[in-house]
Structure formats: structure tokens, C-alpha cells
Write a structure and sequence with these properties.
The protein has 272 residues and is an alpha+beta fold. The protein has three domains: 88 residues; 36 residues; 122 residues, Glucose Permease (Domain IIA) (Distorted Sandwich). Helices cover 42% and strands 27% of the residues. Strands 3, 6, 7, 8, 9, 10, 11, 12, 13 and 14 form a ten-stranded antiparallel β-sheet that branches. Strand 8 and strand 9 form a beta hairpin. About 8% of the residues have low confidence.
């Protein structure tokens, strides 16, 4: 009886041990499963975060590279791009037919008006110059009297004066001719003065084109013309005399002077 009871107690103890071991094992398995699941979840989150960081870093790198590229541009490149953009930009308006019509600014209109005025002024100047050139003919002076030149033009040198008994400058041609020999106008012009000069006697002054002026002195008479009269080349204006006090001891002759722009010039340079 006791043996059976002991056997039952032993079996009961063994069962309790097995039950305890099974319980421990079951708890361990459950703990392992929970730990495994939790680890996997954490791993996926970490993996997701890492992927997000990689993507973010890649995007940031691209942005940095782009920014670096923009920053690395020189000032000249930026200016060139701005200038090109400005040149390619055209201010215009479009009508209903989508036809492009440039917009004229106030400055453009003012500039166009100034250019037009300058062009008109230039054309007027050209026309005036053409008319002036057409009116002014080439002057060809003739010898005003038939005779012999015995005293030449000497503005920058000296000639001997029989009357003054000294060496003097001489701003004319002295042309010897008989008394009352006809004196002619050397070129077309207008009689500007007729006077009795205290040095050179009766004198006729004629103004010509292009700043020329001729003076006919030591005349016997000047009754053939009057002041303001238009004369033609070869027209009689007086006769040879001997009225010049500075040349009274010389033979009868014409004292002939020529000026260009109020400066004495050698008549030999212009007489054809």
C-alpha cells in the first residue's frame, strides 16, 4: 500500500516537473516570438529611416551641386546672360490678328524727330551750297589796259620810287600806256567806290565774287561808270592819266591793285 502511494507521489512529482518545464518552455517560446517580431519592426523602421536619409542626402547633394554651379559663375557670365535676356526681350503689343506691332516710346519718337530735323537741315545746307556753287563762276581776270608793266608787285620786297626817291614796297602793277588809253574792268563786278585818293589820284574800285576786289588808280577820268553800277569784264571804266601824287614823276600809267579777302595779292597770279 505504501509502495503504491510512494509510486503515485513520484509520478505526481514527475508530472509537476514536466508541467513546470513545459510552462517555462512555452513562456520562453512566446518571449522569443515577441522579441523577434519587435526586432523585425524596429529593423524595418530603421531601414526606412536610413532610406529616407539617403534620399534626403541625395536631394540635398543635388541642390548643393546646383547652388555651387550657380555660385561658380563669374560676374561676366551673369552680365552676358542679363544682356542676352534684355536683347531677346521685345516690348510689343498684338492686335486681334496677333500681328506684332513695336511700341514706340517717347524717347524713340523724340530721337526720330531729331534725326528727321537734322536730315532736313543737312539737305537744305546741301541745296544752298549747290546753289551758291552754281552762282559763283570761276573768275578769269584780264589785263585792264594795253601797255607795258614797268613796276611789278612787291609786297614783301622793295622797289625804287622816282617820285619819293627811296626804296618802298609796291602793292600793285604799274602798267605804262599813253594818256587817255582806255581802262577796262578786269572781271564782272559792281562799282563800289569812285574817289580821288591823296596818294594815287582818281580811283575806281570794283568788287567781284569770291572776295576779290580790283582798284584802278592814276586815272585821268572816271566818268564812264557810277557807284553801284554792274559792270562786265572788258567794259570801259576810265582812261589812263597822271593824277597819283606818289608816282607823279613816272610816265603815264595805270596803277592796278588786286585784293583777295581784303589782302593785297599779286595780279599776275590771277590774270589769264
Amino acid at each position: 500500500m505504501r509502495r503504491e502511494r510512494r509510486k503515485v507521489e513520484k509520478d505526481s512529482s514527475f508530472k509537476n516537473i514536466l508541467y513546470l518545464l513545459g510552462t517555462i518552455l512555452g513562456i520562453s517560446i512566446i518571449a522569443f516570438i515577441i522579441t523577434f517580431v519587435t526586432y523585425n519592426n524596429n529593423s524595418e523602421e530603421i531601414h526606412t529611416e536610413r532610406i529616407a536619409d539617403i534620399v534626403s542626402n541625395t536631394t540635398r547633394k543635388e541642390n548643393l551641386e546646383q547652388a555651387s554651379s550657380q555660385i561658380s559663375k563669374t560676374v561676366e557670365e551673369v552680365k552676358e546672360e542679363a544682356l542676352e535676356l534684355e536683347q531677346n526681350t521685345t516690348v510689343s503689343v498684338f492686335d486681334d490678328d496677333e500681328t506684332e506691332t513695336p511700341v514706340a516710346t517717347a524717347e524713340t519718337q523724340e530721337s526720330s524727330q531729331e534725326n528727321t530735323e537734322e536730315q532736313l537741315a543737312s539737305e537744305e545746307n546741301v541745296e544752298e551750297t549747290s546753289l551758291t556753287n552754281a552762282d559763283v563762276k570761276e573768275l578769269e581776270f584780264i589785263m585792264p589796259v594795253e601797255g607795258t608793266v614797268f613796276r611789278e608787285f612787291a609786297k614783301d620786297s622793295l622797289v625804287y620810287s622816282n617820285t619819293l626817291k627811296e626804296w618802298v614796297t609796291h602793292t600793285a602793277l604799274d602798267i605804262e600806256a599813253d594818256k587817255t588809253t582806255v581802262v577796262k574792268a578786269a572781271e564782272d563786278g559792281e562799282v563800289s567806290a569812285i574817289k580821288t585818293d591823296p596818294r594815287y589820284g582818281i580811283t575806281v574800285i570794283i568788287k567781284h565774287q569770291d572776295g576779290f576786289e580790283t582798284r584802278y588808280a592814276n586815272l585821268l577820268t572816271a566818268e564812264y561808270v557810277k557807284v553801284g553800277e554792274k559792270v562786265t569784264k572788258g567794259q570801259t571804266i576810265g582812261t589812263v592819266g597822271n593824277t597819283a601824287s606818289f608816282e607823279i614823276l613816272d610816265n603815264f600809267h595805270l596803277h592796278f591793285e588786286m585784293l583777295k579777302d581784303n589782302e593785297y595779292v599779286d595780279p599776275n597770279l590771277y590774270i589769264k
